[in-house]
Recover the amino acids of this structure.
């Protein structure tokens, strides 16, 4: 008879983030000793690293760190929502974010090499992934600097950690408006800050499609130019932050709201798990 209880299995799951059957197997092998079971999970997990390399990490969470005028945003990915909401995984994500911010890492390569308790972030992730029994990877890292940076984390499900994260770099004293814009970005996912940031080839393609569509609809030749420009403007309003209608007051654009508040946004980042 196994020398452990259901409570032991639960405790090991919470401590390790591993699945129920893996925890039961580890406790069997460790004769019910939790510490030894953790070691069993780690050793078995390390042996399975190569097998996990090709797996898909479609779950995970977003974490932000802001220190005055510098902000960092990371996506730590895993395979299942079970691991994504596990305390062990959330704790790992927090430690990784702290290490990246402490190192001032602004690229994925620099972030993976940052120090985390005497080992690299990459090695720390590998060690914890071995226990969890899943592929875990630091998928995205971003950073912004300005006079101030605001962060907003959004939960798409109450049962999961934040799946969407936004940083807004800005100057000006109205922090509330800056935060409202961060919330807006989370909801409306603009791709660029201003019209000039849109790639010229993308604009040309949109203009060509708008013209072809208008012709196929039988629009009069004399009206084509105005129709095309109207549709291209619509494309900008959908994708350019400053030209979007503000979420809290759709009668104003984001640009107008920022102008009235005396806030200038220099950049933003928006991460969504799996995107």
């Amino acid at each position: 008879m196994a020398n452990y209880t259901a409570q032991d299995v639960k405790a090991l799951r919470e401590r390790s983030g591993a699945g129920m059957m893996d925890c039961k197997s580890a406790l069997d092998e460790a004769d019910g000793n939790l510490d030894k079971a953790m070691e069993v999970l780690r050793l078995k997990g390390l042996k399975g690293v190569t097998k996990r390399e090709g797996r898909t990490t479609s779950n995970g969470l977003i974490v932000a760190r802001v220190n005055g005028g510098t902000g960092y945003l990371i996506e730590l990915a895993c395979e299942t929502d079970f691991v994504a909401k596990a305390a062990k995984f959330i704790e790992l994500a927090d430690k990784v974010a702290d290490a990246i911010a402490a190192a001032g890492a602004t690229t994925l390569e620099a972030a993976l090499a940052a120090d985390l308790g005497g080992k690299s972030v990459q090695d720390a992730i590998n060690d914890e992934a071995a226990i969890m029994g899943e592929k875990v990877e630091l998928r995205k890292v971003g950073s912004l600097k300005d006079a101030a940076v605001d962060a907003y984390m959004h939960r798409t499900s109450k049962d999961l950690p934040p799946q969407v994260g936004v940083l807004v770099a800005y100057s000006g004293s109205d922090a509330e408006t800056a935060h409202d814009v961060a919330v807006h970005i989370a909801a409306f996912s603009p791709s660029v800050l201003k019209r000039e940031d849109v790639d010229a080839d993308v604009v040309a393609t949109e203009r060509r499609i708008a013209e072809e569509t208008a012709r196929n609809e039988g629009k009069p030749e004399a009206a084509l130019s105005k129709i095309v420009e109207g549709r291209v403007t619509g494309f900008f309003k959908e994708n350019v932050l400053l030209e979007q209608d503000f979420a809290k007051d759709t009668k104003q654009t984001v640009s107008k709201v920022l102008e009235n508040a005396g806030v200038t946004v220099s950049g933003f980042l928006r991460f969504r798990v799996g995107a």
Q: What stands out?
A: The mean pLDDT is 91. The domain at 59-193+257-272 is CATH 3.30.479.20 (Tetrahydropterin Synthase; Chain A).
